Amino acid sequence: MGVLGLSSSSSSSSAGMVLVVVLGLLLNAAVLCNGGITSAFVRVLEKSVDMPLNSDVFSIPPGYNAPQQVHITQGDHVGKGVIVSWVTMDEPGSNAVLYWSENSKQKKSAEGIVVTYKYYNYTSGYIHHCTIKNLKFNTKYYYEVGMGHTTRQFWFITPPEVGPDVPYTFGLIGDLGQTYDSNKTLTHYELNPTKGKTVLFVGDLSYADNYSFHDNVRWDTWGRFIERSAAYQPWIWTAGNHELDFEPSIGETKPFKPYTHRYHVPFRASNSTAPFWYSIKRASAYIIVLSSYSAYGKYTPQYRWLEAEFPKVNRNETPWLIVLMHSPWYNSNNYHYKEGESMRVMYEQWFVQYKVDVVFAGHVHAYERSERVSNIAYNIVNGVCTPVNDLSAPVYITIGDGGNIEGLANNMTLPQPKYSAYREASFGHAVFDIKNRTHAYYSWHRNQDGYAVEADSLWFSNRYWDPVDDSKSA
Ligand SMILES: *[C@@H]1O[C@H](CO)[C@@H](O)[C@H](O)[C@H]1NC(C)=O
Ligand SMILES: *[C@@H]1O[C@H](CO)[C@@H](O)[C@H](O)[C@H]1NC(C)=O
Ligand SMILES: *[C@@H]1O[C@H](CO)[C@@H](O)[C@H](O)[C@H]1NC(C)=O
Ligand SMILES: *[C@@H]1O[C@H](CO)[C@@H](O)[C@H](O)[C@H]1NC(C)=O
Ligand SMILES: *[C@@H]1O[C@H](CO)[C@@H](O)[C@H](O)[C@H]1NC(C)=O
Ligand SMILES: *[C@@H]1O[C@H](CO)[C@@H](O)[C@H](O)[C@H]1NC(C)=O
Ligand SMILES: [Fe+2]
């Protein structure tokens, strides 16, 4: 780090320049100390402990070769497709998904594929992925996986047809892991009276890499843990650092191996060439998923894809432009401080130009919401490198507080920078509730509170249709 943004000034050859910048920083610190709210809520800082292998949430469904770890995600660009994934342990079994709509009862069948992988001395079960296409919008479907005497049935509801005033409710979860706290976060999401219909997951899934040799059994337990939600509503996946599973010391040199075998995403539908960056439309939202851990410099595949992607977003069709990534750009926690900086320098200009409404990230195990700010004036020599209020800029939300084994990130930078509107080291989840093309209601819920309690909230005004200053509406 330290190559870009603020720090590039200090690597310039002029010592005078360094002095000016340092002075500037000190002055800024003085001016900026009237930042937002650092929550006074004090959480008991007990350690997050992984749930043991024999926990109820990890139980294996009964029956020979029973499908387990069932999860769904969007399977096309507009929401008429669903990817169904599941694992069978004893034999490959069937790749087919049987499905029927609540009304028609006429059963149809879609054929999928099966993959396996080895990781050090672990051999995966049979991982099935089946894309169901051309579903009707806004319809409840039942589906069945497995064969013979051991089949299992689930259901999902397809989103309404893409359109500018379609209400839709997204849940936000990040850095979940599989501790008792993770289970609380998921339970709170499930019981939140504002029912989320789709989870936007901002990366760091199982934390299997916390075990010796990245014991991939913990990828299996995680799949069983989230099934109770992810089999019934799509989880939109973002890759985090804990998906890398890059471990040359045991011969594992292909990054993202377990993740890419287990979690398929519809990246080809948005003309992406890799599953780490892609986009979907869902109801009135256009969602762009980026990868903090894939190359993003100029001329890289991700850069070229994103450059071509932004102009495709039609705010008359999808007013809400949402970006997901793992490593946050505006984080005022000492944990992972500035890790998102080089990507911010590459892409922030576009986010402002194309008026992204909100950016959700994870990685930092705490909660933070920013003001609408940008920091794009800097050009190596002008020294203009302070975040400024910018009504074309997104709100940045860090929601890496799912509750994994690494515990809370409770060491914040002081003073709280001006761009930071609210920050708190507690586990929780959030909900982004789109009402129409101009308004969306956002709320963050900490695990210590009752299911309906909002610890932080904001009325969002759409950046294209209603670009008023909404940052003070908290
Ligand atoms: C993998 O190797 C480790 C270390 O030798 C051992 O503890 C573990 O039981 C092995 N797992 C399997 C599935 O063989
Ligand atoms: C996880 O949460 C669910 C729902 O609240 C509960 O039924 C289950 O017992 C919990 N399991 C563990 C291991 O905490
Ligand atoms: C993907 O590329 C094809 C061929 O250029 C084009 O027809 C299609 O509209 C593109 N899809 C998206 C979602 O950009
Ligand atoms: C697992 O996570 C804990 C908490 O962050 C850490 O102390 C420990 O070193 C990690 N273990 C491994 C094998 O990564
Ligand atoms: C908090 O973070 C700062 C900066 O990284 C570090 O110097 C300090 O020791 C940390 N404090 C604690 C209590 O960990
Ligand atoms: C959009 O939703 C907001 C919040 O519910 C409401 O106040 C506003 O009247 C709605 N706009 C239209 C055009 O319905
Ligand atoms: Fe992370």
TrEMBL record:
Q: Which residues form the signal peptide?
A: none
Locate the Purple acid phosphatase N-terminal domain: which residues? 67-158
Enzymatic reactions: a phosphate monoester + H2O = an alcohol + phosphate
Keyword terms: Glycoprotein, Hydrolase, Iron, Metal-binding, Signal, Zinc
The answer to whether keyword NADP applies is no
Q: What GO terms are given for molecular function?
A: acid phosphatase activity; metal ion binding
EC number(s) on record? 3.1.3.2
Instruction: Quote the protein name from its UniProt record.
Output: Purple acid phosphatase
Q: Where is the Calcineurin-like phosphoesterase domain?
A: 169-367
Cofactor(s) demanded: Zn(2+); Fe cation
Residues annotated as domain Purple acid phosphatase C-terminal? 393-452
Please state which protein family the record places this protein in. Belongs to the metallophosphoesterase superfamily. Purple acid phosphatase family.
